Input
Amino acid sequence: MKLELRGITKRFGALTANDHIDLVVQPGEIHCLLGENGAGKSTLMNVLYGLYRADEGEILLDDQVQKFEGPGDAMNAGIGMVHQHFMLIPVFTVAENVMLGNENTKAGGVLDLEAARTKVREISARFGFDIDPDAKIEDLPVGVQQRVEIIKALSRDAKVLVFDEPTAVLTPQETDELMDIMRQLKDEGTAIVFITHKLREVREVADRITVIRLGKVVGEAEPSATNAELASLMVGRAVSLTVDKADAAPGDDALVVSELTVTDHVGQVLVDNVSFTLKRGEILCVAGVQGNGQTELTEAIMGLQHRVLGSIVLDGTELVGQSTRGVLDSGVGFVPEDRTEDGLVGEFTIAENLMLDRYTSEPFVKAGTLQLDALARFAAEKVTEFDVRAQGIATKVGRLSGGNQQKVVLARELSRELRLFIAAQPTRGLDVGSIEFVHKRIVATRDAGVPVIVVSTELDEVTALADRIAVMYRGRIIGIVPGDTPRDVLGLMMAGETPSEVAA
Output
């Protein structure tokens, strides 16, 4: 099925998110929509999917003009969408989520759940997904949840499939698997719109590339274009794709983690006897495939895990046993890996989210009274400094793009006086221009003498930022190696081989 967008324009008050955008996607084609955060990519696809109604322009499928009153109309017309933030109900099973909104019934009005199970098994077999139809969504890793989203779209015979930032929450291995799935869908004749800002992915799978900047189409490019050319077209300026940093000058020991063990509510060991020391003025990157204890390690430091044994000492102060509030007050800045669940309050404004760590103290509160003028000045300054794309500081954070939400978290955490900075997946969902900015801020934080822990599944990011790299596998640190360790060595360590085994 051929998709064509003609002159699509969408405004939100004075903000024009999409400005007369034209786009054509042919059957059996992967058409990449490339752009920085806030460029209007997701808005355009939400118009296509019936979530928004365009102010101007029209949508055509096989040269026939469409009128979508909502997502149901788009789905019935053959359009499927895999959202950046999954549209799944955690307590429902895979089969229940797949049939949601498209419920088939048997005699007597009883839901035909077995038909949904059969559909899940058929599509899973077709793509090698190996997904249990009766598994609950909340029990599945994010990579598997995304496959459920794909199954949900394909179960309705989608001929046009939109992937909106699909790799933002995936490991490198899961990303490679998704690329293979997209190629298979393309070979079957599906028209695919792939929204991203990751240049490697674009060049790997795109047949054609359309670049959007500030709501307008600014050009088209071939997959053979260099990363520098794509980045420049996307951001509107030359972008450094490498991290410029001097050698670290580590100071005294700042953080000492000793024999740290974290267990879950049934006694399963999540972090297994981990010990390491972090010095002032160095970046320790924690690498590993998602789910090997990195999340629980950072949560233990932050007081978010309650079944903790061992010791975590920051500048002579024991953190184990302290509340999260106490850890924050000790000067620890924290960027959690899931910004929507743990980093922000979606119904709060940008300004309100920027003061979450300091809502009890000056300059935002005096004598128990909120100082609105001080908050407004601070928020306006940080929105500008971190290039948060929004209508204003009163915009609710839940309405921002994923990348702009991440910028709000970073702005808040890097605007305090810190003794330790922990960033889990700090550039997840960010475009190349924003990544460049974040990396510079992390290096500047290190250079100011603050110890930094960066948890990332992106090996390019790990090798670019790290002074030392700790690789986690099944809850253990199986080795701490220099920051210039080759990617292939790190990859073997992430699969469970110790540094000595790799060397042998």
About this structure: The longest strand covers residues 15-25.
